[in-house]
Structure formats: C-alpha cells, structure tokens
Amino acid sequence: MSVTLIAGLGNPGREYADTRHNLGFTVVEELAAAEGLKWKLETRFEVATARWDVRPGLTRLLVKPQTFMNDSGRALRRLLDFHQVAVDTLVVAYDDLTIELGRLKVSVSGSAGGHNGVASLLEHLGDGFIRYRLGIGAPRPAEMDLKDFVLGKFSTEQTQLIAQQQTTFVDGLRLLLNRGPAEAMNTLNRRDRHEPDQA
User: Fold this and answer.
1) Superfamily in which the 2-188 domain is placed by CATH
2) Model confidence over 56-66: pLDDT tens digits?
3) pTM, entire model
4) Pairing assessment for the beta strands 91-96 and 2-8 based on DSSP bridges
5) Catalytic residue among 21, 83, 115, 194
C-alpha cells in the first residue's frame, strides 16, 4: 500500500487557532473537512491524523504535529519512519512571510527563511520535502517583533481574504497531490498575468 503524508504546520491549543502561524493547520483541516475525514490523536507520534483512503492501495494521511512549531520535525520523523515514507514525497503546508497574503507557492528546496517549523524539519529530515507555502506577507509594523507578528491574528479584512482563498488553497493542494510538484509549480507559482509588476 502506498502512503503519502501531507502535514500542516502550526501550534496546538485554542489560543493559537486563528494565528498567522497556524495557516498550515487551517488548510489541511479544510481539505479533511471537504473529504469528510475524521481527526484522530496519535499520542505515540505526537500528531493528529486524518486518514484518506483515495482508492485501493493509495492512502493519504493528513497530519498536524501536536508538538509546538519549533519541534515539528521530530514528530514527523517518527511518523515517516513508521510508515516508511520517503522524505521527498512528504508535502508540508506552512505560512510564509515572503509571499503576499493570500497567494501560494510550491517549492522542493531552500532554507528555513526564519521559519522555526521548517528549521525543525531541516534538522530532523534534511531538505527535499515538498513545500506548500501559504502567503501571510501582510505589512508588519516596524516596531512589531517577528514572533509577535506570526503569532498574532489576522485582521477582519485579512480573515475575509484568507476565507475567500481557502478553496484555492485546497484545490492547489489537490493538484499537487494528483499531478506532482513540477506541474503544481508551473501552475500555482505563476503570477496573475493581469497584475502589474511591483515596483
């Protein structure tokens, strides 16, 4: 049986539920809801999973690490080893400050870019996992600490924009899973042709 792992990064606990740093959680939750999947806590791996049996012989496991963000890699390492899943097939959805709010990009390598969850994955897994990067790059007040910004909540307008984009995020994730990273990058990483270049 072929198992694919799709992990969303975030922090567990109600107080973090609507923060920018939990956008990865939100998107895998939206996909699970669309497929009618149930979440199950697997304490031995410190993860919550939703099993998606796509067809006989193909199972996708949606995953939310229940460690805090900066220890995500440890939980995912144990789960990958248990299911004997190669790192280069792991899909990880997470918030990205370098991408405009509401946009997304797919990539297969790179640095952590200051993201503690990605840094933990690089530490425990190495590079090569498939990155599903969700833009949160709203203007940040100069006096606001980066940690305070990512752990802060979206404004009302930003929340509406994210809600409007959820279908796009979920559909893009389906495209990535069904067609692979090369086609997903070609389709999802394009800028809107009608959008003027930023100065």
Assistant:
1) Peptidyl-tRNA hydrolase (3.40.50.1470)
2) 988 999 999 99
3) 0.91
4) parallel
5) 21
